[in-house]
Every structure is written in C-alpha cells, then in structure tokens.
Design goal:
By secondary structure, the protein is α/β, with parallel strands linked by helices. It has 14 helices and 16 strands. The chain has two domains: 190 residues, L-asparaginase, N-terminal domain (Rossmann fold, 3-Layer(aba) Sandwich); 122 residues, Rossmann fold (3-Layer(aba) Sandwich), CATH 3.40.50.40. The chain is globular and about 65 Å long. It binds glutamic acid (GLU). Glutamic acid (GLU) binds next to loops.
C-alpha cells in the first residue's frame, strides 16, 4: 500500500525548542527532530520534513508567511503540516487560509508544553495532525475545510480559531463555532463544516497579494480612550508609515464619543476597519443612533469587519492592501464576513 505523502514544514516555536546550558528554552530543533520524536509517523505516512525557520511565532513576518503560502501552493504532496509557535497561530493559519488554494489537507499545529517538560504536547499534536491529514473524511472535504488548526485532538477552522490562554494546555478554542471535528482513538469524528464563502471570495481578489509589506495598526479602544494615538495617525500618517488601521471597537461597533470624529477623519485618510473588541461575532449595522454609533461610523466611511476577531481583521486588511485593493474593494470583502 502506498502511504500518503505528507510534507511537514517547521517554522519554530515551543514545539521546536530545546534547553540551552542555562536551562532556558531555545528554538533549536528542526523538522527532522520533530519527526524523529514520533516513530509512529512512519507507519502512517511517507513523511517529508523541511525546516523553514527556527523562530518564535511572535517574530514571524507577513513576508515569511506569504512566502510559505506560495511554497505550499507548489508542493506535490497529499497533505501539508505546518509546525510553529502558538502565539500567532490564530493569525498565520488565517493568512494561509486566505492565500492557499489546494484540494489537500493543510494543517497548522504547535505545542504549549515544551519538550523538556513532563508530558509535552508537541509529539501528540504532530501525530494527531498526521492522522487528520490522512483521514478519508478530511481528505474528501479538504476544500470545504480550508486550512485547519489541530490542537489537543480537536480540529478548528482557521477563520475561527483563537488562542484564548497564554499558558494552559488547552489554550485554543473557536468560541463562535466550536471545533469542526474531534480526533478520537485514531478516527476523525466530523462535527461541522465551516462557512467558506467569505474566505473563497476574498482569495479570488487577493491573487496579487505578493506585493510589498503593508503595515496595519491595531488600536484597541478602552474606556475613556483620549485618542492621542488616533490624533497622531491623522496628523502624521506619512511619518508613521501605517497603511491601514483596525480599531478594536466596543460592543456591536461603537467608539467613545470623544474619539468618534477622529476615527472618522482617520478613515478618510487610510482604510480603517472596525472590529469587535469582544473577540469576534457580527457587528451591528442599523440599531444605535448618535455620533459614535455603528450607524454614524458606517456613514463616516469606516469599514465594518463583520464577525472577524480584530487580529484576523488585521491579517485580512494587510493582505487586501498588499494586493493593491482600494477602499471600496476592501469594504466589499469585509462586508461578506457579516
Ligand atoms: N512565543 C513562542 C512562539 O510563539 C513560544 C510559544 C509557543 O510556541 O507556544 O513561538
């Protein structure tokens, strides 16, 4: 029997750490080391392992991730597994989902407990990812699933998965939708399929996303925010260099009244996306009145980010800007997310 060809692309992260002389964990392990730690993999798949980088995911760049997406597009294999740090997995997996169009499983996995600790989760997560990549339901639905994250025997859609805790083992969840499937024994038990239309529609317009870096600021608005950063962005846009802004707004799409006009001015200068600081979930469009309500902000030209978490909205906005899309096209893409 021919085993499925599964390509492992290792970026770094806790899963790839080993202790230095002082006991501090360093990102030293490569893809071959990760594979060697799980001998069972060779019985499940024809594993090909490549070390792409040895960096913490907190230091990955959009350029690196765009290059990784292009690499995945060109691979002649039956499944791809990216291993990386957990810190930005919710962003990198969504970017890959926006850029990669393949009919094979594309999976991102990681570890919360490093290899020097008792019961590290890296080997188990890698084994689970390979089992998921080889599973008949997953293979048959690869296109409908898109890029998925596999952590602790659960499978999550890239558009939904969030890192919801900085240290505990079960640090990942999809609060809006729940997992797509569970790995039980050696079987994948399907639970649901993701709503893919917004991602597919976005990808069609992101084809030129290999353009230059497009820095996007993320401004999380809190109680009584005075707006000094917004003011600086309005007054010194060119010096600051940002090409877009995501505003982590209150509730269904509100900002403190004292910054409402600044937010409006900002959106006249650069694409400015309103995203729920509640972490995700659709925004309102036509419920509240007043100068800082969703009705006023939409009228003022703010782009409403729909159900996307602010971190994911930022990923999408930078991809749109890289692709050279104008404000109208960007607004249309975000509108499809609710
Ligand atoms: N901050 C590191 C990273 O994201 C380690 C965290 C982790 O992998 O869990 O790569």
């Amino acid at each position: 029997m021919t085993l499925p060809r599964i390509q492992i692309l290792a970026l770094g992260g806790t899963i790839a750490t080993s202790p230095d002389a002082s006991g501090a964990m360093q990102m030293g392990l490569g893809a071959d080391d990760l594979v060697a730690a799980v001998p069972l993999l060779a019985t499940l798949a024809d594993i090909r392992a490549e070390t792409v980088s040895r960096v913490g995911s907190h230091s990955l760049s959009f350029d690196q991730m765009h290059a990784l997406a292009a690499k995945i597009m060109g691979l002649d294999v039956d499944g791809v597994i990216v291993t990386q740090g957990t810190d930005t997995l919710e962003e990198t997996s969504f970017l890959l989902d926006l850029l990669v169009e393949r009919d094979i499983p594309v999976i991102v996995t990681a570890a919360m407990r490093n290899p020097a600790l008792t019961s590290p989760d890296g080997p188990g997560n890698l084994l689970a990812a390979v089992r998921v990549a080889c599973d008949p339901w997953v293979k048959a639905h690869a296109r409908s699933l898109g890029v998925v994250a596999v952590m602790l025997d659960e499978i999550y859609a890239a558009a939904d998965v969030l890192k919801i805790h900085p240290t505990r083992l079960n640090a990942f969840a999809s609060p809006q939708t729940g997992p797509l499937a569970a790995l039980v024994e050696d079987r994948v038990v399907p639970l649901s399929l993701p709503v893919r239309a917004p991602v597919e529609a976005a990808r069609k317009r992101l084809t030129a996303a290999e353009g230059r870096e497009q820095p996007v600021a993320l401004l999380w608005l809190g109680l009584d925010e005075p707006g000094y950063i917004l003011e600086a962005m309005v007054d010194h846009r060119d010096q600051l260099g940002y090409r877009g802004v995501v505003v982590g707004a209150m509730g269904g799409g509100h900002v403190p009244e004292r910054v409402a006009s600044l937010v409006g001015q900002l959106s006249e200068i650069i694409p400015t996306v309103v995203s729920p600081r509640a972490g995700g979930g659709p925004l309102l469009r036509q419920t509240y009145g007043g100068p800082s309500s969703e009705i006023a902000l939409r009228k003022a030209g703010l782009i409403f980010g729909g159900r996307l978490n602010p971190l994911k909205a930022r990923v999408l906005l930078q991809a749109c800007l890289r692709a050279g899309l104008d404000r109208t096209a960007i607004a249309e893409i975000f509108e499809t997310f609710g």
